[in-house]
Amino acid sequence: MFRLETEVDKERRILLSGRLRDDNKAASPELRALLATPAEHEGPLEVWVLDQEGGIVGGLTGRTWAHWLHVHLLWVEASHRRLGLGARLLTEAERVARTERFCTRSRLETWDFQAPVFYRRQGYEVAGRIDDYPPGVTEFILVKQLVS
């Protein structure tokens, strides 16, 4: 007999993540090859733009793992846009990922009304698209080589 639950449970999520990671490593020689290398270690990567009072006017959050930077969020306050801060945030995150965490590629997702043109100007290429996610919107998956 089994029971389904829909509650949010951080401890179960951590347990599930560990079990899936263990199963994936058991099934994949490529993932096993990452063991005990700098690429195996996943970690957050954050870059912030602060004003003179220390308030956040922009930021980038992401993670590095398996030689990849995955950008989750990039935002600049509307009054400070078009000053190059977004490009500076992205460039700094890519620098840290490349030089300190041995990343060779970067990936991110963006919606059609957000910043696909901005990311293409930064050297990202569309690797995939999902139409109607959410309805009426197209999501783009973009990637970039961090080393030549």
UniProtKB/TrEMBL annotation:
One annotated GO molecular function: acyltransferase activity, transferring groups other than amino-acyl groups
CDD domains: NAT_SF
Keyword flag Transferase: yes
Pfam families in the cross-refs: Acetyltransf_7
This protein's UniProt keywords: Transferase
SUPFAM superfamilies in the record: Acyl-CoA N-acyltransferases (Nat) (SSF55729)
Matches recorded under InterPro entries: Acyl_CoA_acyltransferase, GNAT_dom
Gene3D superfamilies, per the entry: 3.40.630.30
Transmembrane segments: none
Protein name stated in the entry: GNAT family N-acetyltransferase
Source organism of the structure: Streptomyces finlayi
